[in-house]
Every structure is written in C-alpha cells, then in structure tokens.
Amino acid sequence: MTADRGDAARPHWRDWTWQLRERIRSAEALARWVLPTADEKDAIALLASRFHFVITPYYAALMDPDDPNCPIRRQVVPATAEVRDPAGLADPLDEVAHSPVKNVIRVYPDRIAFCVNNECALYCRFCLRKRMVGEPGWAMKQRELEAALAWIRRTPEIRDVLLTGGDPLVFSDARLDWLLGELRAIPHVELLRLGTRLPVTLPFRVTDDLVAMLARHHPVWVNTHFNHPKELTPEAAEACDRLTRAGIPVGNQSVLLRGINDTPDVMRTLCEGLVRLRVRPYYCYQAQWLEGTAHFRVPIERGMELFRGMRGRTSGFAIPQYVLDTPHGKVPLAAPSFRGREGDEVVVESWDGHLWREPNPLEP
Ligand code: SF4
Question: HSE (CB half, 13 Å, CA atoms) of 99?
Fold first, then answer.
C-alpha cells in the first residue's frame, strides 16, 4: 500500500505507527502528493543516498501541490542547490569532539544534549545533524545507552539533560519510560527536557498515554520546532494542548530559513500563532554553516533587523531570542539598542527609534 491524499479522510490517518510505516521515500511516492519538478526529481536521485529523503503522509498533506516554493515542501524535499553548495561543514558545532561518550554532547558544565535516537519522523534538508540522522552507525544500542547513563551517573555537575536525536519521541512509550526513569533516579539530574519535532511533523504521536507517561517523570519540558505558520494545524494544536495540559511547558526553537520564514510578517504570524497555542517562542537559530544548506542561509545582519522589527509590534514573550550556535555555546544576536554612557546617564534606543536617557549609577 502507498499513502495518498485519500488517506487523510480514513481512520488510520491518526495512527502514528501507520504514518511511520507509510512514509514517502521516493519520487514516485512523492508524486501521489505533489508533482515533483525536474529539479526535485534530480535532487532525489542525487541525494537519496547522502541525506535521507523521508516524509510523513501527514506533513506531505500540508504541501502545496502546485507551488515548488511552498515553505513546507522546501523544508523536506531535496533541491539540487544542496549538491551545488561547495562549502559548509558536516559537523559545524564540533559535536563529535564534545562527546565524552557516544552521542552525549557536552558544551556547558551543567547540561548535556543526549542523542538517544538517530531516527526522525522525517528528515529536514537543513538538519544540523544530517551527518547522523537516519544513519545506522549512529543508532544507540542498548549497551551504548547504558554507557551514556553510567557517564551521567558519575558526572555530578550534570543537572539538566536534553533528550534529543534524531527524535526521542520516535521511541516507543515503554523505551522512553525506561530511559526517563533511569535518568530521574539519578539524584543530581534535576531537569529532563525533550527536543522533538513530532508535534509538527507527526502530531498523532502525542497520545494521552504518552503525555501521562511523561508527566510521571516531572519536571519534564519539551522544546519543539515549528518553522512556518502553515505548520500550526488543528492536529499540531491538539498535540501541544495535550502536552501543556499535562503540565509540560512547551517551547519552540525555529531556524531562520531563506524563503521560508525570513520575512517579518511570516515570523510574526508564526510566533503569535505559537503563543496562542501556549507554546513559547524560545530560540530562533541562525542556520549553520552546514554542508548543502547555503541556499537556506540569511545574512545575520538581516536576521537581527527582522527580530528588532518585531520589538514593540507584538508581545515581548512572542519574540524568540535570535542566536548563533557555536562550538562554544549559543551566542545571542541582537541589533544594539544600548548606545553607551554619557556622564551620569546611559542612552538607549527604543523600538521606534527614540533615544532615551536613563540616570545610571556608577559602582560605589
Ligand atoms: S526533525 Fe530535527 S533532528 Fe530530525 S531531521 Fe529535522 S531538524 Fe534534524
């Protein structure tokens, strides 16, 4: 059986395991959803063996069949621009060098990203971890998960563990429950976080059983990854609502992507839509200097202008922090509004360009 648009009206549509089984993996299967362009067909043939091409039927149904520039389509359908990108690194954050044990990335003293799973529901063309996602060699065997847990147990500085991947929610409830239980039993691990794109790409994964299990391991936080307002569907809203009703704070980490969300209107619509779902826009990442992604990158100066332009025009908590991730951690990027000291005052610039002088004490 191959999924097509007709499936969206059938009961199995909301079964997340059916969605995983029926994922699109070829130009022929994609043609049941959109008419692939010559460039897309060439790119699928050229890239299938390098950066995995896999899309859930749910996410494919969000694509505009008539528009190759559809922001959903561009995130997951290969383009030959990926092959033409001469520069870009495989591991721009030097994550391998920051791993004391396999798939545990430690950049800060007190927290780690633990890549528990190398699989995702679908594969994003701009993925920072495209070197490893979907690659069998990066899968965590049981003994490797145990080795990572042993390292966390003997590293008392670690108080915050982010389960990521790949996507930890591709695990079964039972496996995730076991893993969270092992982590929760470590006295110095205070906070458990999950980084997952499934509320966006496969929202049916967020079942009542899943959230009940997650809530047994509180405090649990979730960060998800919406990039465009088209992704804010009723199904995604339901997934986020399930999580927040279980007391799980949900944040969003997007990536600034050329032609997808790099205009003030699209970014503001996305962030205001997220806030309506009670999802806090947390970070927006500058797209990394990553192989095959030059066509997605936006100059940082324009990114700073975009987020500066949001200030004063929407609620402050609807504006994510624009950051550049580096091998040394995240660096906030912001157009300066602090102009400096003049005598006993500092001069600052407000969102609408007014200069304001604020009396400012000196250190005694
Ligand atoms: S869901 Fe996240 S980890 Fe998976 S391919 Fe997309 S960006 Fe990468």
Answer: 16
Q: What gap in Å lies between CA 129 and CA 353, rounded to an integer?
A: 39
Residue 129 CB–ligand 1 contact under 6 Å: yes
Distance 346 CA to ligand 1 centre (A): 43
Domains detected in the chain: 5-84 (no CATH), 104-332 (3.20.20.70), 337-364 (no CATH)
User: pLDDT tens for residues 109-122?
Assistant: 999 999 999 999 99
Q: What is the largest CA-CA distance in the chain?
A: 75
pLDDT in tens, 276-315: 999 999 999 999 999 999 999 999 999 999 999 999 999 9
Is-contact 327 98, C-beta < 8 A? yes
133 CB near ligand 1 (under 6 Å): yes
Q: Is the CB of 123 under 6 A from ligand 1?
A: yes
At 248, give phi and psi (nearest 5°): -100, 110
124 Cα to the center of ligand 1, angstroms:
5
Q: Which is nearest to 268 in space by CA: 220, 218, 307, 221? A: 307
Q: Check if 125 has its Cβ closer than 6 Å to any atom of ligand 1.
A: no
Q: How many angstroms separate the alpha carbon of residue 350 from the centre of ligand 1? A: 37
Q: Is 119 in the pocket of ligand 1 (CB under 6 A)?
A: no
Choosing from 133, 135, 293 the residue with most ligand 1 atoms within 8 A of its CB, the one to mutate for a pocket test is 133
Which of 41-55, 154-168, 223-237 bottoms out in mean pLDDT, i.e. has the lowest?
A: 41-55
Q: Compute φ and ψ for 190, nearest 5 degrees.
A: -90, -40
pTM as predicted: 0.95
Closest CA to 125 of 43, 18, 205, 200: 43
